[in-house]
Amino acid sequence: MRRWLWLFGLGCAGCVNPFAPRLVEGEPPAGVIGDQRTLEGLFQNFRIAYVLRDTVLYGQLLDSAFTFTYRNYERGVDVSWGRQEDMRATAGLFRAAQQIELLWHEIVASYGDSLRHDVSRSFALTITFSPVDVVRIYGRATFRVQRARPEDPWRIVAWRDESFY
């Protein structure tokens, strides 16, 4: 009996389910990642980082001086934190969620130059924690992005969530 259990365990360990895709290891497939030297590429990578729940890709979007700010309407104050805390919070969200879908909608405002730019755009975010625990957020976020030279990738320096939820 012990031998059959051992063989069964060995057989299961070597099985591959052709109907279940492998988890992506390393970088996402070519053509999925946007050119972060463009604003649209930056937002594409932001979306892909959330959909794949990829903290490495997400971290590449943020400048070392990054600040996230949101309004705590219950207390009537703005709350902010830096890059490290945001990475921890985002990693926790990515681990807790079974699925995340982020859709960027229209750009409400956009101004700046080739080194610094402010973009405000609306979004729809759906976070599935379980089949009975799904959170849907529709809102707007304003980003300040910058880079040292026009050929460098854009990095998010500030993100202000202007959603009311």
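(ticket continues) Second input and output from the same batch:
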Amino acid sequence: MSYEKVLDQIKHKEGKRKKFEKHNAPKDRDYGKAKKECRRCGRTGKGILSQYGLNYCRQCFREIAEDLGFKQLK
């Protein structure tokens, strides 16, 4: 189950909700692959192109590369 679904289920139980949020809330990351995310679709993990400050995943980059001025080498 996702974090938001469980919060909806226990929203009227104040004590359980506080305890659940304390132990299960997503962490704010300072480093690692979960810190970087695609600015277009929000994917995290492998395949994030951060060179030149792009911060796009490889799938989004392939879709918009020509619009950004990149050319495909053959």
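Agent notes: Residues 10 and 52 are 44 Å apart (CA to CA). The chain has two domains: 1-30, 32-68. Closing as not reproducible unless the customer responds.
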